[in-house]
Structures are given as structure tokens and as C-alpha cells.
Amino acid sequence: MFIIVCSAVTLTGCGSGALDVVSLTTSELRLSCGPVTLESLPPAFEELPPLDPDARAALDELVNGPTGREAAGFDQDYDWSVASRTDDQLVLFGRGTTPESGAVNAQFVRENGTWTPRSWGGCNIEVDVDGFGPARVALEPDLAPSAASSELSLVINERACASGRAPTGRDVVPIVTETDETISIAVLVESTDGDADCPGNPWHPITITLEEPLGSRQLLDAHTFPPRPIGPVPVAD
User: Fold this and answer.
1) Calpha distance 192→196 (Å, rounded)
2) Beta-ladder partners of 85
């Protein structure tokens, strides 16, 4: 079980107060990739059903039918599985055969007894939980930690639409996993109420207290799978 105590994290806005406690069990956490939901963390890709003849026919229609030019390479660069299926809808998940390939998904509806492609494209495998969405993590500019640091000055960038507003007044939940070699940090942000547009969200400061000094351990942003090294805020942002 993960127990996250906001008083252990310094940030601007921590729900209704600094003593709020947000508890999340591993069973509540999941990974999503667009319309695909992976219930285990880390993901057990091998538990997803492989393509059967019916699903293979749907993928062949996507690649070889009228949409084929737009979906070129989908059948070659990914290991495909069935993410979900009903009588009327089919969702396929493709995991890249190389790290550069990433992940993709394809959605189909059944029309006249045949699966018809409705949407397809790349997606990021991200951690989420009901009521929360993921945030990217970067180092606070000019506050890079040293080996002796027991606190990390970080900034987060909410991935969900939030009308360009910082998460002030909403729960910000860091999930920190420390090992001898790495410190993995996944930050979840409470979703906004009501509709929100997507002009891009500001970077927002937080400070995380470690159980032990940083030392030579690598910092990883674990809001995506696989986790990625934490670096400075990207120049484009």
C-alpha cells in the first residue's frame, strides 16, 4: 500500500490543508494508453490476449483498406494484443518492437458483420487512478540536487486539460519508490471539476523529502512506463 502524507511534501496547494492524507493502494493504480487500460502495475503485457483470426482481420483492414496509407507500418512495428472487445466494439493495443516505436492503439466498430476502423494512433503508457491524472516531473531550474540532498526541488506539469491553471487547491499526490539504484517519482494531480480547455498548463513547484540522501541514485519520472530520467524543464516549455 502507498500512503502519501501531504505534510511530507511542500507545495503550493495541498487540497484543504497541509495535514491531508491521501491513501492509494496498488490495486487502485493502473496504466492507460489512450482507450487501453492495463490493470496491473508494472504492466503484464503477456496477459493480454494475442490476436485471433477475427482481430487479425480487423488489423488487416486497417492497414490494407482505405486507411492503409495513414496506418502504414502498424502491422510490422508492433506486437499486437486485444485490449477489449464487445459485440460492437474492438480495441487493439500495439507495443513497439523497439523502444523508439512506443505504443499505439486502434479502435473498431462492427458494421454489417465487419470491423470498421474508427480511430488509431500513438499513445503514452501513463499511470492514473480514478479522480486523478498524471503530471510530468522536471528539476527546478537552478536548484539541481547534490549527492547529499535529502530534499528534491521539482516542478510538475499536469498532463490533463486544466484551462491553463496551476493545481492550487487540488490534491497533488507524489508516489515515491526508493531503491539502492533509483528514485522513481510518479505525481498524480486531482482532476478539475467541470469542463476545461487545453491551452497548456504551467510548471508548478513541489518539494519531496527523501528517506535517505540522494547519493548516486538516478531520478526517474514514473508517470509513464517505462520510467524516464528526470531532467531540466524542456526548453520548448
Assistant:
1) 7
2) 90
